[in-house]
Fold this protein.
Amino acid sequence: MKAAIVKAPKTDPVYGDFPDPVAREGYRVIQVKASALSQLTRSRASGSHYSADGSFPAVAGTDGVGITADGQRVYFGLPESPFGAMAERSLVKSEHCIPLPDTLDEVVAAAIANPGMSAWAGLIERAHLRPGESVLVNGATGTAGRIAVQLAKHLGAQRVIATGRNEMELEELKAHGADQVISFSLGLVHPNGAKQYEEALIDAFSRGIDVVVDYLWGASARAIIAAIAKGVDDARPVRFVHVGGASGEESIDLPGAGLRSSSIVLMGSGYKSVPLPALLNAAKSTFDAVIPARLRIATKGVPLSEVERYWSSPGKPRVVFTLP
C-alpha cells in the first residue's frame, strides 16, 4: 500500500510502499480517507514527542478518518505501530474508533478532531468548566486556540478573553465568541512586552477569570501567572491548564512567591494526563458540537502523494492529506 513513511528519527516522511496491515482480534483495518497534519503528528513522527515509541521505519499520522470493513465511517486515534494514519490502510484497536456523524465532512472531521479534542479535554476534563465562568485562551489565534474560544462559549462561558500576537486575527475572534482580546509582543525586539502584557492581564484578572487555557507556555504564560498573583484577591482559585507549547520554550522561571500569594491551580492536559477514553469522548463531543456551536476551521485538502511537499506547512489552514 502507499503511505507516508518515516525511515529514521528526525527525518521527514517520504511517499512510498509499505506492507499492508493484517486484521486480528481486537483490531480493525481501516481504509483511510483523511488524516490531518498537526504538531502532534509531526513530533510523534520525528520521535521527539513523549508518547512516541521510537520504532522505525513507520507510517506517520496519529489519527484520521476512514471506513471499517463493514462500511462504517469512523474517526480513529493512535494506530498500532508501525501503521500510522497517513496510509491507504491502518491498523487500529477497536476501542480507538468512534463513529462520525452523517452530516460531518471527512476533511473537516480530520482537521477539527485534534484541536477540538485538546480544547474540550482542557476545558471539561481538566478545568471542569462550569456555565457562567470566565475563560482566558492564551494563544487564541492558533488553530487549536480558535477552536477553544468557540467551544468555551458553546459550553456556557459568560466571558471569553482571547490573547495572541496577531491583532487582526484577534479582532476576527470577536465574531466567534471572544468578548475581549488582548494582544502582546514578546522577545528581544520587545524588551518591555512581557511587562506590558502582565499589566493588561492584571486588570482582566481583577474583574474575574476562572480558567486559563494556555497553548503557548514561555514568557506569555509566566506573565499570566504573575498577573494572577497580583490581580486576584481573596484566594479566588484560577485553574491554569497548559495544553501546548507553541512558544518553543519548554521551561519558565516560576517564582515561588507568586504561588504562595495566589490560589492558582496549575495542571497540564494532553495524552496521558487525560485518559485515552476521555480524549476520544472529547473528540466525539467536538464532532457533535460542530453544527450547534458553528465551529469553524480553515482546511486545505491535498492528496497523500504530496506529503513530502506539504509536511512543513504552517498550521493555518490545516493541511489534511486525503485518499480516494
